[in-house]
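Q: Here's a chain of 287 amino acids. Please give me its 3D structure as tokens.
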Amino acid sequence: MTAKTVNQRAWFLVLPVVVLVAFNAVIPLMTVVNYSVQETFGDNIFFFEGLKWFEQVLHSERFHAALGRQFMFTAMVLLIEIPLGVAIALAMPRKGIGVSICLVLMSLPLLIPWNVVGAMWNIFALPDIGLLGKTLNAIGFDYNYTRQPLSAWFTVLAMDVWHWTSLVVLLAYAGLTAIPDAYFQAARIDGASAWAVFRYIQLPKMKRVLTIAILLRFMDSFMIYTEPFVLTGGGPGNTTTFLSIDLVKMALGQFDLGPAAAMSLIYFLIILLVSWVFYTFTMRDEE
């Protein structure tokens, strides 16, 4: 009996991807891990510190405050964007030229670079000359996002909702259009209400795409940096200094590489853990 010949040359096709991933992810990650357990005073001289920086970060009130702001922002973003995105997707047409028009309009905010979004809303929300700021002040609201913490939070949230709700809309719309018409025909025969159709047909069938939407929006909002930094710079005070902004300030502003590296690893582990727990909990009944 002739032995079967195994051709291993196909691995060479995967090699470029492995090298690219190693260059873009593994090597930078190992560099961060190296800095997180060492101290340096320049001249490429390092002193081993063990877990000192991790303990310092975990016991830091500054870290706890930034983490609290980050979780609050992410929770508010998800509570607004997911229901709003689903509602808009349900209202969009299923046939005709209106489909193309709606899809193009929904895609436009996603095409704008993050720094441009921050700059646009910076001008748009100025209390004296911005359309949003001037309008709110004209109708009686005391609005100034450069000085008032509540106004700053409102502006950052409004900016994120405007920028990223479209992603939820597109994902939800894709899930809705993938539902076979037979389900809706059976619902009409049974005389099901619009709420019953949504509750028992559309929502369960959108479970997978909504899980992806929530995971994407959680990770994106939890790592948000460019838009609020351009819009408010983390202010007024530390009102909108989220974890990412605080990390950059520590690493580049103060040049505390050890604590910054430890914070970035803790940051990464929080995102990884929350995403894993959410996905496992959501998909526990899926085969």
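Q: Can you summarize the key feature?
A: The chain has a mean pLDDT of 89.
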